[in-house]
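Notes for week 9. Today we move from apo structures to complexes. The key idea is that a small molecule is not decoration. When we ask for a structure prediction with adenosine-5'-triphosphate present, the ligand SMILES becomes part of the input, just like the chain. The input block below holds both the sequence and the ligand string. Read it once before you look at the output, and try to guess where the molecule might sit.
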Amino acid sequence: MLEVRNLRKEFGDFVAVDDVTFSLPQRGSLAIVGESGSGKTTTARMIAGLETASGGHILVEGEERGPGHKRQRQRQRLRSGERRARGRQIQMVFQDPYSSLDRRQRVGAAVAEAVALHQRLPADRLRARVAELLDMVGLDDRQAAALPKALSGGQRQRAAIARALAAEPQILILDEAVAALDVSIQAQILRLLADIRARTGTALLFITHDLGAVRHISDDMLVMQAGKIVEHGPVATVLADPQHPYTRRLIASVPKPGWIPRRRMDPAAAARLP
Ligand SMILES: Nc1ncnc2c1ncn2[C@@H]1O[C@H](COP(=O)(O)OP(=O)(O)OP(=O)(O)O)[C@@H](O)[C@H]1O
């Protein structure tokens, strides 16, 4: 479904992404983890076509893509249908759902707009499809009629996911999209994504720090550091036998069952410290 070969991004002299190669099959799920600033988001943005690659190849179903690709850019200018097809291929959900939602647009209208952009439907079927998408992510009529600012963070994130799913994308990229949600909502969204992957064949690309989520939802994971892939393999293998120090640190930092948070120091004891 997706093949990334020797992908590179330079910002001036700085190399943010360096020789990144991986593939993602249909119905596959891959997590990219890595230290802050290691190039995860930049990689995702290039795949989504939001950033131009400095080098390398991005192939979707064997076809080269990306705004940096000249022939594609010409074709894009010619046919708006092409843009629709691109949206159908890849959608991205960000950590801050405000970046995928218009603050002045009610949630139901935002989802309807996304459906209409990708599918020509009579009004009644459009309404039914919007209701189906909102229902899928667990938003009710009151929330559908609300502006993004009147929703909770979790509800806003679910609205952004419903909007992305409206395009029936072949690849859904989630950039820390569930990181800020509380655990029960997070579990609900991960279940929802697993269900969508099984039902529609949509491939998932997660960018996350959360190994718990990685374990639940991804088949494979890759670890980035300073723009490079330092570890890549099936999640179970990488987690059971991490080769890279960053992966080991990340695994060591996940609380284990029986873990007790360290108590805050008694202020009187703190006062006695030198
Ligand atoms: N537009 C830009 N101009 C210059 N440098 C940039 C730009 N975008 C990103 N960078 C740099 O590229 C590097 C990789 O950034 P990126 O956002 O991909 O990291 P990340 O792994 O997603 O980090 P985080 O987990 O903190 O989001 C960083 O050092 C960042 O400062």
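The longest strand covers residues 14-24.
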